[in-house]
Protein backbone atom coordinates (compact mmCIF):
# COMPACT_ATOMS: atom_id res chain seq x y z
CA UNK A 1 0.00 0.00 0.00
CA UNK A 2 2.82 2.43 0.89
CA UNK A 3 4.46 1.84 -2.47
CA UNK A 4 1.20 2.61 -4.26
CA UNK A 5 0.73 5.85 -2.32
CA UNK A 6 4.34 6.86 -2.97
CA UNK A 7 3.98 6.11 -6.67
CA UNK A 8 0.73 8.06 -6.93
CA UNK A 9 2.22 11.09 -5.13
CA UNK A 10 5.40 11.24 -7.21
CA UNK A 11 3.55 10.54 -10.46
CA UNK A 12 1.06 13.35 -9.85
CA UNK A 13 3.81 15.79 -8.88
CA UNK A 14 5.83 14.79 -11.92
CA UNK A 15 2.85 15.64 -14.14
CA UNK A 16 2.29 18.91 -12.25
CA UNK A 17 5.84 20.16 -12.83
CA UNK A 18 5.51 19.60 -16.59
CA UNK A 19 2.30 21.50 -17.28
CA UNK A 20 -0.27 23.73 -15.59
CA UNK A 21 -2.96 21.89 -17.55
CA UNK A 22 -2.51 18.75 -15.44
CA UNK A 23 -2.96 20.51 -12.09
CA UNK A 24 -6.68 19.91 -11.67
CA UNK A 25 -6.44 16.17 -12.32
CA UNK A 26 -3.39 15.92 -10.06
CA UNK A 27 -5.26 17.68 -7.23
CA UNK A 28 -8.16 15.26 -7.53
CA UNK A 29 -5.84 12.24 -7.55
CA UNK A 30 -3.79 13.36 -4.53
CA UNK A 31 -6.94 14.23 -2.55
CA UNK A 32 -8.17 10.65 -3.00
CA UNK A 33 -4.77 9.24 -2.04
CA UNK A 34 -4.74 11.43 1.08
CA UNK A 35 -8.02 9.93 2.24
CA UNK A 36 -6.67 6.42 1.66
CA UNK A 37 -3.66 6.70 4.01
CA UNK A 38 -2.99 10.21 5.31
CA UNK A 39 0.18 9.31 7.22
CA UNK A 40 1.96 7.77 4.25
CA UNK A 41 0.60 10.44 1.93
CA UNK A 42 2.03 13.31 4.00
CA UNK A 43 5.32 11.49 4.43
CA UNK A 44 6.02 11.53 0.70
CA UNK A 45 4.23 14.82 -0.06
CA UNK A 46 6.32 16.68 2.52
CA UNK A 47 9.41 14.93 1.20
CA UNK A 48 8.66 16.29 -2.29
CA UNK A 49 7.71 19.71 -0.92
CA UNK A 50 11.03 20.01 0.92
CA UNK A 51 12.90 19.55 -2.35
CA UNK A 52 11.00 22.51 -3.79
CA UNK A 53 11.50 24.74 -0.74
CA UNK A 54 15.29 24.72 -1.00
CA UNK A 55 15.36 26.02 -4.59
CA UNK A 56 15.72 29.83 -4.75
CA UNK A 57 15.99 30.25 -8.52
CA UNK A 58 12.82 30.89 -10.53
CA UNK A 59 13.01 27.76 -12.70
CA UNK A 60 9.77 27.06 -14.63
CA UNK A 61 9.28 23.48 -13.30
CA UNK A 62 9.71 24.75 -9.73
CA UNK A 63 7.28 27.62 -10.31
CA UNK A 64 4.72 25.15 -11.66
CA UNK A 65 5.09 23.00 -8.54
CA UNK A 66 4.73 26.05 -6.29
CA UNK A 67 1.52 26.93 -8.09
CA UNK A 68 0.34 23.33 -7.81
CA UNK A 69 0.93 23.09 -4.05
CA UNK A 70 -1.07 26.28 -3.51
CA UNK A 71 -3.91 24.98 -5.71
CA UNK A 72 -3.84 21.66 -3.90
CA UNK A 73 -4.23 23.33 -0.50
CA UNK A 74 -7.17 25.37 -1.81
CA UNK A 75 -8.69 22.21 -3.28
CA UNK A 76 -8.42 20.48 0.10
CA UNK A 77 -10.18 23.38 1.82
CA UNK A 78 -13.07 23.47 -0.65
CA UNK A 79 -16.46 22.19 0.48
CA UNK A 80 -16.79 19.89 -2.52
CA UNK A 81 -13.75 17.87 -1.49
CA UNK A 82 -14.51 17.86 2.24
CA UNK A 83 -15.07 14.13 2.58
CA UNK A 84 -13.92 11.88 5.41
CA UNK A 85 -11.24 9.23 5.00
CA UNK A 86 -10.96 5.73 6.44
CA UNK A 87 -8.96 6.87 9.45
CA UNK A 88 -11.36 9.70 10.32
CA UNK A 89 -9.31 12.47 8.71
CA UNK A 90 -10.82 14.86 6.19
CA UNK A 91 -9.57 17.22 3.53
CA UNK A 92 -9.99 20.34 5.65
CA UNK A 93 -7.78 18.83 8.35
CA UNK A 94 -5.25 18.00 5.65
CA UNK A 95 -5.25 21.61 4.46
CA UNK A 96 -4.66 22.81 8.02
CA UNK A 97 -1.78 20.36 8.42
CA UNK A 98 -0.20 21.54 5.19
CA UNK A 99 -0.48 25.24 6.07
CA UNK A 100 0.87 24.75 9.60
CA UNK A 101 3.92 23.01 8.16
CA UNK A 102 4.56 25.94 5.81
CA UNK A 103 4.00 28.51 8.58
CA UNK A 104 6.51 26.73 10.80
CA UNK A 105 9.23 27.07 8.16
CA UNK A 106 8.70 30.72 7.20
CA UNK A 107 11.34 31.75 9.76
CA UNK A 108 14.00 29.36 8.48
CA UNK A 109 17.58 30.58 8.17
CA UNK A 110 17.64 29.58 4.50
CA UNK A 111 16.54 32.40 2.22
CA UNK A 112 15.17 29.86 -0.27
CA UNK A 113 12.93 28.21 2.35
CA UNK A 114 11.66 31.57 3.61
CA UNK A 115 10.92 32.67 0.07
CA UNK A 116 9.15 29.49 -1.07
CA UNK A 117 7.05 28.99 2.07
CA UNK A 118 5.96 32.62 2.00
CA UNK A 119 5.24 32.40 -1.73
CA UNK A 120 3.07 29.28 -1.37
CA UNK A 121 1.17 30.67 1.64
CA UNK A 122 0.46 33.92 -0.20
CA UNK A 123 -0.88 32.08 -3.22
CA UNK A 124 -3.06 29.91 -1.01
CA UNK A 125 -4.57 33.02 0.58
CA UNK A 126 -5.12 34.70 -2.79
CA UNK A 127 -6.80 31.63 -4.28
CA UNK A 128 -9.04 30.84 -1.31
CA UNK A 129 -12.72 31.64 -2.00
CA UNK A 130 -14.39 34.48 -0.11
CA UNK A 131 -16.36 32.08 2.12
CA UNK A 132 -13.37 29.89 2.99
CA UNK A 133 -12.93 29.04 6.67
CA UNK A 134 -9.49 29.06 8.28
CA UNK A 135 -9.13 27.57 11.74
CA UNK A 136 -8.04 29.88 14.55
CA UNK A 137 -5.05 27.61 15.15
CA UNK A 138 -3.78 28.63 11.72
CA UNK A 139 -5.08 32.20 11.43
CA UNK A 140 -3.13 33.90 14.24
CA UNK A 141 0.30 32.43 13.43
CA UNK A 142 -0.36 32.95 9.71
CA UNK A 143 -1.06 36.65 10.23
CA UNK A 144 2.01 37.05 12.43
CA UNK A 145 4.35 35.21 10.07
CA UNK A 146 3.17 37.00 6.92
CA UNK A 147 3.62 40.35 8.66
CA UNK A 148 7.07 39.28 9.79
CA UNK A 149 8.09 38.20 6.26
CA UNK A 150 6.97 41.58 4.93
CA UNK A 151 9.94 42.96 6.88
CA UNK A 152 12.42 40.35 5.66
CA UNK A 153 15.83 41.65 4.61
CA UNK A 154 15.42 40.15 1.11
CA UNK A 155 13.19 42.04 -1.37
CA UNK A 156 12.09 38.80 -3.03
CA UNK A 157 10.78 37.44 0.27
CA UNK A 158 9.01 40.72 1.07
CA UNK A 159 7.41 40.79 -2.38
CA UNK A 160 6.27 37.17 -1.91
CA UNK A 161 4.52 38.17 1.32
CA UNK A 162 2.67 41.08 -0.28
CA UNK A 163 -0.18 39.14 -2.01
CA UNK A 164 -0.98 37.36 1.25
CA UNK A 165 -0.86 40.58 3.28
CA UNK A 166 -3.19 42.32 0.81
CA UNK A 167 -5.62 39.38 0.91
CA UNK A 168 -5.59 39.37 4.71
CA UNK A 169 -6.40 43.09 4.67
CA UNK A 170 -9.48 42.43 2.54
CA UNK A 171 -10.64 39.74 4.99
CA UNK A 172 -10.28 41.68 8.22
CA UNK A 173 -10.28 45.35 9.19
CA UNK A 174 -6.91 45.77 10.87
CA UNK A 175 -4.98 48.99 11.39
CA UNK A 176 -1.78 46.97 11.77
CA UNK A 177 -2.20 45.41 8.33
CA UNK A 178 -3.03 48.79 6.81
CA UNK A 179 0.10 50.31 8.33
CA UNK A 180 2.17 47.42 6.98
CA UNK A 181 0.79 47.89 3.47
CA UNK A 182 1.27 51.66 3.61
CA UNK A 183 4.88 51.24 4.73
CA UNK A 184 5.62 48.75 1.95
CA UNK A 185 4.05 50.98 -0.69
CA UNK A 186 5.56 54.27 0.44
CA UNK A 187 8.89 53.40 1.99
CA UNK A 188 10.17 50.03 0.82
CA UNK A 189 13.54 50.40 -0.88
CA UNK A 190 12.80 47.79 -3.53
CA UNK A 191 10.65 48.66 -6.58
CA UNK A 192 9.84 44.94 -6.79
CA UNK A 193 8.00 45.18 -3.47
CA UNK A 194 6.24 48.47 -4.25
CA UNK A 195 5.06 47.07 -7.59
CA UNK A 196 3.84 43.88 -5.88
CA UNK A 197 1.68 45.97 -3.54
CA UNK A 198 0.09 47.79 -6.48
CA UNK A 199 -0.49 44.51 -8.32
CA UNK A 200 -2.38 43.01 -5.37
CA UNK A 201 -3.96 45.93 -3.51
CA UNK A 202 -7.71 46.49 -3.58
CA UNK A 203 -8.44 50.25 -3.71
CA UNK A 204 -10.37 51.59 -0.74
CA UNK A 205 -10.98 55.04 0.66
CA UNK A 206 -8.01 54.84 3.03
CA UNK A 207 -5.44 53.92 0.36
CA UNK A 208 -6.49 55.97 -2.70
CA UNK A 209 -4.01 58.77 -2.02
CA UNK A 210 -1.26 56.22 -1.34
CA UNK A 211 -1.90 54.61 -4.71
CA UNK A 212 -1.99 57.88 -6.62
CA UNK A 213 1.27 59.01 -5.02
CA UNK A 214 3.06 56.14 -6.79
CA UNK A 215 2.58 57.92 -10.13
CA UNK A 216 5.66 59.91 -9.10
CA UNK A 217 7.65 56.84 -8.02
CA UNK A 218 11.30 56.66 -9.04
CA UNK A 219 10.77 53.28 -10.72
CA UNK A 220 9.29 53.09 -14.21
CA UNK A 221 7.75 49.67 -13.50
CA UNK A 222 6.01 50.97 -10.38
CA UNK A 223 4.56 53.96 -12.22
CA UNK A 224 3.26 51.71 -15.01
CA UNK A 225 1.70 49.36 -12.45
CA UNK A 226 0.07 52.34 -10.75
CA UNK A 227 -1.62 53.59 -13.94
CA UNK A 228 -2.76 50.04 -14.71
CA UNK A 229 -4.26 49.69 -11.23
CA UNK A 230 -6.09 53.02 -11.46
CA UNK A 231 -7.43 52.09 -14.90
CA UNK A 232 -8.69 48.65 -13.90
CA UNK A 233 -9.86 49.09 -10.31
CA UNK A 234 -10.69 52.76 -9.65
CA UNK A 235 -13.70 54.35 -11.30
CA UNK A 236 -13.13 57.83 -12.70
CA UNK A 237 -16.06 59.32 -10.80
CA UNK A 238 -14.75 58.05 -7.46
CA UNK A 239 -11.79 60.45 -7.79
CA UNK A 240 -11.94 64.17 -7.14
CA UNK A 241 -11.41 66.47 -10.13
CA UNK A 242 -8.09 67.52 -8.64
CA UNK A 243 -6.96 63.88 -8.45
CA UNK A 244 -8.07 63.23 -12.04
CA UNK A 245 -6.14 66.20 -13.37
CA UNK A 246 -3.06 65.34 -11.31
CA UNK A 247 -3.06 61.90 -12.94
CA UNK A 248 -3.35 63.50 -16.38
CA UNK A 249 -0.53 65.93 -15.69
CA UNK A 250 1.86 63.33 -14.31
CA UNK A 251 1.09 60.76 -16.99
CA UNK A 252 1.51 63.22 -19.85
CA UNK A 253 4.77 64.63 -18.50
CA UNK A 254 6.34 61.33 -17.43
CA UNK A 255 9.95 61.07 -18.58
CA UNK A 256 9.52 57.47 -19.79
CA UNK A 257 7.86 56.77 -23.14
CA UNK A 258 6.78 53.34 -21.83
CA UNK A 259 4.97 54.90 -18.88
CA UNK A 260 3.32 57.50 -21.12
CA UNK A 261 2.13 54.71 -23.42
CA UNK A 262 0.73 52.74 -20.47
CA UNK A 263 -0.95 55.90 -19.21
CA UNK A 264 -2.64 56.61 -22.55
CA UNK A 265 -3.56 53.03 -23.47
CA UNK A 266 -4.65 51.73 -20.07
CA UNK A 267 -5.91 54.77 -18.21
CA UNK A 268 -7.13 57.29 -20.79
CA UNK A 269 -8.41 54.89 -23.48
CA UNK A 270 -9.59 51.73 -21.74
CA UNK A 271 -10.10 52.92 -18.18
CA UNK A 272 -11.68 56.36 -18.54
CA UNK A 273 -12.87 56.85 -22.09
CA UNK A 274 -14.22 53.37 -22.80
CA UNK A 275 -14.78 52.13 -19.25
CA UNK A 276 -16.17 55.12 -17.34
CA UNK A 277 -17.53 57.20 -20.25
CA UNK A 278 -18.65 54.55 -22.74
CA UNK A 279 -16.55 56.09 -25.51
CA UNK A 280 -18.18 59.52 -25.12
CA UNK A 281 -15.51 62.23 -25.42
CA UNK A 282 -17.92 64.95 -24.34
CA UNK A 283 -18.64 63.05 -21.11
CA UNK A 284 -14.90 62.59 -20.50
CA UNK A 285 -14.29 66.32 -20.92
CA UNK A 286 -17.19 67.12 -18.62
CA UNK A 287 -15.73 64.94 -15.86
CA UNK A 288 -12.36 66.72 -16.16
CA UNK A 289 -13.70 70.30 -15.80
CA UNK A 290 -12.21 71.77 -19.00
CA UNK A 291 -12.86 75.38 -18.01
CA UNK A 292 -10.55 75.13 -15.01
CA UNK A 293 -7.99 72.62 -16.28
CA UNK A 294 -7.86 73.23 -20.04
CA UNK A 295 -4.06 73.46 -20.04
CA UNK A 296 -3.84 69.88 -18.75
CA UNK A 297 -6.74 68.42 -20.73
CA UNK A 298 -6.01 69.77 -24.22
CA UNK A 299 -2.56 68.09 -24.56
CA UNK A 300 -4.13 64.75 -23.63
CA UNK A 301 -6.92 65.21 -26.16
CA UNK A 302 -4.29 66.12 -28.76
CA UNK A 303 -2.80 62.65 -28.27
CA UNK A 304 -6.12 61.00 -29.13
CA UNK A 305 -7.49 63.46 -31.70
CA UNK A 306 -7.86 60.76 -34.38
CA UNK A 307 -10.48 59.09 -32.20
CA UNK A 308 -12.83 62.06 -32.08
CA UNK A 309 -12.50 63.35 -35.66
CA UNK A 310 -16.07 62.34 -36.55
CA UNK A 311 -17.72 63.97 -33.50
CA UNK A 312 -15.94 67.22 -34.41
CA UNK A 313 -17.84 67.53 -37.69
CA UNK A 314 -21.16 67.17 -35.82
CA UNK A 315 -20.50 70.19 -33.57
CA UNK A 316 -23.33 72.73 -33.64
CA UNK A 317 -21.85 76.25 -33.48
CA UNK A 318 -25.18 77.64 -32.33
CA UNK A 319 -25.07 75.48 -29.21
CA UNK A 320 -21.36 75.22 -28.50
CA UNK A 321 -20.63 73.76 -25.06
CA UNK A 322 -17.39 74.05 -23.13
CA UNK A 323 -16.72 70.36 -23.77
CA UNK A 324 -17.22 70.78 -27.53
CA UNK A 325 -15.03 73.90 -27.51
CA UNK A 326 -12.12 72.14 -25.86
CA UNK A 327 -12.45 69.17 -28.24
CA UNK A 328 -12.46 71.57 -31.18
CA UNK A 329 -9.33 73.26 -29.84
CA UNK A 330 -7.50 69.96 -29.36
CA UNK A 331 -8.45 68.83 -32.86
CA UNK A 332 -7.22 72.11 -34.37
CA UNK A 333 -3.93 72.00 -32.45
CA UNK A 334 -2.98 68.46 -33.47
CA UNK A 335 -4.80 67.43 -36.62
CA UNK A 336 -3.59 68.13 -40.15
CA UNK A 337 -7.12 67.44 -41.40
CA UNK A 338 -8.12 71.02 -42.27
CA UNK A 339 -10.98 69.69 -44.40
CA UNK A 340 -12.89 68.56 -41.31
CA UNK A 341 -12.23 71.92 -39.67
CA UNK A 342 -13.58 73.68 -42.75
CA UNK A 343 -16.79 71.70 -42.31
CA UNK A 344 -17.16 73.28 -38.87
CA UNK A 345 -16.24 76.78 -40.14
CA UNK A 346 -17.23 76.93 -43.85
CA UNK A 347 -15.85 80.48 -44.16
CA UNK A 348 -13.99 83.15 -42.21
CA UNK A 349 -17.28 85.03 -42.01
CA UNK A 350 -18.86 82.13 -40.11
CA UNK A 351 -15.84 82.11 -37.79
CA UNK A 352 -16.17 85.88 -37.20
CA UNK A 353 -19.87 85.49 -36.42
CA UNK A 354 -19.06 82.67 -34.01
CA UNK A 355 -16.55 84.90 -32.20
CA UNK A 356 -19.18 87.60 -31.77
CA UNK A 357 -21.84 85.09 -30.69
CA UNK A 358 -19.67 83.72 -27.85
CA UNK A 359 -18.07 87.02 -26.92
CA UNK A 360 -19.52 86.89 -23.40
CA UNK A 361 -18.38 83.32 -22.72
CA UNK A 362 -14.76 83.75 -21.71
CA UNK A 363 -13.71 80.10 -21.99
CA UNK A 364 -15.36 79.32 -25.32
CA UNK A 365 -14.03 82.60 -26.74
CA UNK A 366 -10.51 81.64 -25.66
CA UNK A 367 -10.81 78.26 -27.42
CA UNK A 368 -12.16 79.85 -30.61
CA UNK A 369 -9.33 82.41 -30.71
CA UNK A 370 -6.75 79.61 -30.50
CA UNK A 371 -8.47 77.69 -33.32
CA UNK A 372 -7.72 80.57 -35.73
CA UNK A 373 -4.22 79.32 -36.58
CA UNK A 374 -5.65 76.35 -38.50
CA UNK A 375 -8.23 78.26 -40.57
CA UNK A 376 -7.99 78.78 -44.32
CA UNK A 377 -7.24 82.48 -44.95
CA UNK A 378 -7.64 82.41 -48.73
CA UNK A 379 -11.16 83.89 -48.54
CA UNK A 380 -10.55 87.63 -49.11
CA UNK A 381 -14.13 88.70 -48.37
CA UNK A 382 -14.07 86.60 -45.22
CA UNK A 383 -10.80 88.21 -44.13
CA UNK A 384 -12.36 91.68 -44.44
CA UNK A 385 -15.30 90.57 -42.29
CA UNK A 386 -12.94 89.07 -39.72
CA UNK A 387 -10.73 92.20 -39.59
CA UNK A 388 -13.79 94.37 -39.06
CA UNK A 389 -15.04 92.05 -36.30
CA UNK A 390 -11.67 91.93 -34.55
CA UNK A 391 -11.38 95.71 -34.54
CA UNK A 392 -14.91 96.86 -33.81
CA UNK A 393 -16.15 94.09 -31.55
CA UNK A 394 -12.99 93.17 -29.67
CA UNK A 395 -10.01 95.55 -29.83
CA UNK A 396 -12.21 98.62 -29.39
CA UNK A 397 -14.16 96.99 -26.56
CA UNK A 398 -12.58 97.77 -23.20
CA UNK A 399 -14.55 94.95 -21.53
CA UNK A 400 -12.63 92.18 -23.31
CA UNK A 401 -10.40 90.29 -20.80
CA UNK A 402 -6.73 91.22 -21.21
CA UNK A 403 -5.58 87.64 -21.72
CA UNK A 404 -7.37 87.48 -25.08
CA UNK A 405 -5.47 90.37 -26.68
CA UNK A 406 -2.36 88.46 -27.84
CA UNK A 407 -4.49 85.92 -29.72
CA UNK A 408 -6.82 88.57 -31.14
CA UNK A 409 -3.94 90.73 -32.38
CA UNK A 410 -2.19 87.69 -33.86
CA UNK A 411 -5.38 86.90 -35.78
CA UNK A 412 -5.53 90.53 -36.95
CA UNK A 413 -1.93 90.49 -38.25
CA UNK A 414 -2.46 87.17 -40.07
CA UNK A 415 -5.76 88.34 -41.58
CA UNK A 416 -4.28 91.63 -42.83
CA UNK A 417 -1.22 89.85 -44.22
CA UNK A 418 0.99 92.86 -43.52
CA UNK A 419 2.78 93.86 -40.32
CA UNK A 420 2.90 97.50 -41.36
CA UNK A 421 -0.85 97.61 -42.02
CA UNK A 422 -1.58 95.89 -38.72
CA UNK A 423 0.76 98.25 -36.84
CA UNK A 424 -0.90 101.24 -38.49
CA UNK A 425 -4.37 100.01 -37.57
CA UNK A 426 -3.35 99.39 -33.95
CA UNK A 427 -1.66 102.81 -33.75
CA UNK A 428 -4.78 104.45 -35.12
CA UNK A 429 -6.89 102.54 -32.63
CA UNK A 430 -4.78 103.35 -29.57
CA UNK A 431 -3.38 106.79 -30.30
CA UNK A 432 -6.16 108.52 -32.24
CA UNK A 433 -8.61 108.05 -29.36
CA UNK A 434 -6.76 108.57 -26.11
CA UNK A 435 -9.57 110.19 -24.20
CA UNK A 436 -9.50 107.72 -21.33
CA UNK A 437 -5.73 107.30 -21.06
CA UNK A 438 -5.74 108.66 -17.57
CA UNK A 439 -7.34 105.36 -16.57
CA UNK A 440 -4.92 102.62 -15.49
CA UNK A 441 -7.24 100.04 -17.04
CA UNK A 442 -7.02 101.77 -20.43
CA UNK A 443 -3.23 102.06 -20.24
CA UNK A 444 -2.88 98.40 -19.29
CA UNK A 445 -5.23 97.35 -22.13
CA UNK A 446 -3.24 99.41 -24.66
CA UNK A 447 0.04 97.85 -23.55
CA UNK A 448 -1.40 94.31 -23.79
CA UNK A 449 -2.51 95.05 -27.36
CA UNK A 450 0.96 96.37 -28.25
CA UNK A 451 2.55 93.32 -26.63
CA UNK A 452 0.32 91.06 -28.74
CA UNK A 453 1.28 92.99 -31.88
CA UNK A 454 5.00 92.69 -31.15
CA UNK A 455 4.71 88.97 -30.41
CA UNK A 456 2.82 88.41 -33.68
CA UNK A 457 5.42 90.30 -35.75
CA UNK A 458 8.67 89.01 -37.22
CA UNK A 459 12.13 90.58 -36.71
CA UNK A 460 12.89 93.56 -38.96
CA UNK A 461 16.00 95.47 -40.03
CA UNK A 462 14.26 98.69 -39.06
CA UNK A 463 11.26 98.02 -36.78
CA UNK A 464 11.16 101.71 -35.85
CA UNK A 465 9.40 102.42 -39.15
CA UNK A 466 6.40 100.32 -38.06
CA UNK A 467 6.35 100.68 -34.30
CA UNK A 468 7.92 104.04 -33.38
CA UNK A 469 4.61 105.79 -32.69
CA UNK A 470 3.41 102.91 -30.51
CA UNK A 471 6.68 102.77 -28.58
CA UNK A 472 6.77 106.53 -28.00
CA UNK A 473 3.10 107.02 -27.16
CA UNK A 474 2.24 103.77 -25.38
CA UNK A 475 5.29 101.86 -24.14
CA UNK A 476 7.48 104.74 -22.92
CA UNK A 477 4.52 106.32 -21.15
CA UNK A 478 3.88 102.98 -19.48
CA UNK A 479 7.45 102.85 -18.15
CA UNK A 480 6.86 105.92 -15.96
CA UNK A 481 3.41 104.88 -14.75
CA UNK A 482 2.94 104.49 -11.00
CA UNK A 483 1.33 101.04 -11.40
CA UNK A 484 3.69 98.06 -11.09
CA UNK A 485 1.47 95.96 -13.39
CA UNK A 486 1.58 98.59 -16.13
CA UNK A 487 5.35 99.07 -15.84
CA UNK A 488 5.90 95.29 -16.02
CA UNK A 489 3.99 95.01 -19.33
CA UNK A 490 5.81 98.08 -20.67
CA UNK A 491 9.21 96.54 -19.87
CA UNK A 492 8.20 93.30 -21.58
CA UNK A 493 7.06 95.24 -24.66
CA UNK A 494 10.35 97.12 -24.81
CA UNK A 495 12.39 93.92 -24.45
CA UNK A 496 10.45 92.26 -27.32
CA UNK A 497 10.92 95.39 -29.42
CA UNK A 498 14.69 95.28 -28.81
CA UNK A 499 14.86 91.64 -29.90
CA UNK A 500 12.91 92.41 -33.10
CA UNK A 501 15.64 94.75 -34.37
CA UNK A 502 18.06 92.72 -36.48
CA UNK A 503 20.54 95.61 -36.47
CA UNK A 504 20.73 95.48 -32.63
CA UNK A 505 20.69 99.30 -32.54
CA UNK A 506 17.51 99.38 -30.47
CA UNK A 507 18.95 96.93 -27.94
CA UNK A 508 22.13 98.94 -27.43
CA UNK A 509 20.07 102.11 -27.00
CA UNK A 510 17.74 100.68 -24.35
CA UNK A 511 19.97 98.31 -22.38
CA UNK A 512 20.85 101.15 -19.97
CA UNK A 513 17.15 101.57 -19.24
CA UNK A 514 16.92 97.89 -18.25
CA UNK A 515 19.97 98.32 -16.01
CA UNK A 516 18.30 101.30 -14.38
CA UNK A 517 15.19 99.21 -13.65
CA UNK A 518 17.46 96.51 -12.25
CA UNK A 519 18.97 99.02 -9.83
CA UNK A 520 15.97 101.01 -8.72
CA UNK A 521 12.64 99.24 -9.26
CA UNK A 522 10.74 96.59 -7.32
CA UNK A 523 11.75 92.93 -7.38
CA UNK A 524 9.18 91.60 -9.93
CA UNK A 525 10.25 94.27 -12.44
CA UNK A 526 13.92 93.61 -11.72
CA UNK A 527 13.35 89.99 -12.75
CA UNK A 528 11.74 91.06 -16.05
CA UNK A 529 14.55 93.54 -16.73
CA UNK A 530 17.19 90.90 -15.97
CA UNK A 531 15.49 88.46 -18.35
CA UNK A 532 15.54 91.16 -21.04
CA UNK A 533 19.26 91.80 -20.52
CA UNK A 534 20.04 88.07 -20.66
CA UNK A 535 18.01 87.69 -23.89
CA UNK A 536 19.88 90.60 -25.47
CA UNK A 537 23.27 89.19 -24.44
CA UNK A 538 22.39 85.71 -25.71
CA UNK A 539 21.42 87.16 -29.06
CA UNK A 540 24.48 89.40 -29.41
CA UNK A 541 27.18 88.54 -26.85
CA UNK A 542 29.72 91.30 -26.21
CA UNK A 543 32.94 91.00 -28.19
Summarize the structure.
With 543 residues, the protein is mainly α. Among the domains are: 202 residues, Leucine-rich Repeat Variant (Alpha Horseshoe), CATH 1.25.10; 56 residues, no CATH class.
Helix content, binned percent: over 70%
**Ends distance:** 101 Å
Helices, by number, come to: 29
| Global morphology | elongated
Please provide the ordered H/E string of secondary-structure elements. HHHHHHHHHHHHHHHHHHHHHHHHHHHHH
Strand content: under 5%
> Under CATH, the topology of the domain at 1-202 is which?
Leucine-rich Repeat Variant
CATH superfamily of the domain at 1-202: Leucine-rich Repeat Variant
> Which blocks of ≥5 consecutive residues have pLDDT under 50?
none
Rg, nearest Å: 35 Å
Organism: Rhodosorus marinus
Domain Nuclear condensin complex subunit 3 C-terminal: 445-538
Subcellular location: Chromosome
Family: Belongs to the CND3 (condensin subunit 3) family.
Q: If you had to describe this structure to a student in words, what would you say it looks like?
A:
The chain starts with a helix and ends with a helix. It contains 29 helices and no strands. It has 543 residues and is mainly alpha-helical. The longest helix has 20 residues, at 257-276. The protein is elongated, with a radius of gyration of 35 Å. The mean pLDDT is 88. Among the domains are: 1-202, Leucine-rich Repeat Variant (Alpha Horseshoe), CATH 1.25.10.10; 211-266, no CATH class. α2 (23-36) packs across α4 (60-77) and α25 (440-456) runs antiparallel to α26 (464-479).
Amino acid sequence: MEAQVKGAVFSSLDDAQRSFASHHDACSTLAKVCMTDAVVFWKYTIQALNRVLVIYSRDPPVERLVEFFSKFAVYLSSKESNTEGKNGSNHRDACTTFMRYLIHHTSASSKAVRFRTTQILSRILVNLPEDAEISEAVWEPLLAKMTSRSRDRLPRVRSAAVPGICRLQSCVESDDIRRTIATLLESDSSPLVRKAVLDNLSPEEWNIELILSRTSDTSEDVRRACYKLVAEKIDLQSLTISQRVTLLRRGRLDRSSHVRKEFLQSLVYRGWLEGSCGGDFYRLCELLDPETYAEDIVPILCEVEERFAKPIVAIDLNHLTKEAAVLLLAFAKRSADNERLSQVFPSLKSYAECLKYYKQDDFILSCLIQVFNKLDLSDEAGRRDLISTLREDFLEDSQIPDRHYPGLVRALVSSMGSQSSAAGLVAELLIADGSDWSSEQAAFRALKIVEGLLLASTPQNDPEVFFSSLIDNVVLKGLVNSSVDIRSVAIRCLSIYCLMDKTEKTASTNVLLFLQVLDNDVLPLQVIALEAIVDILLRSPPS
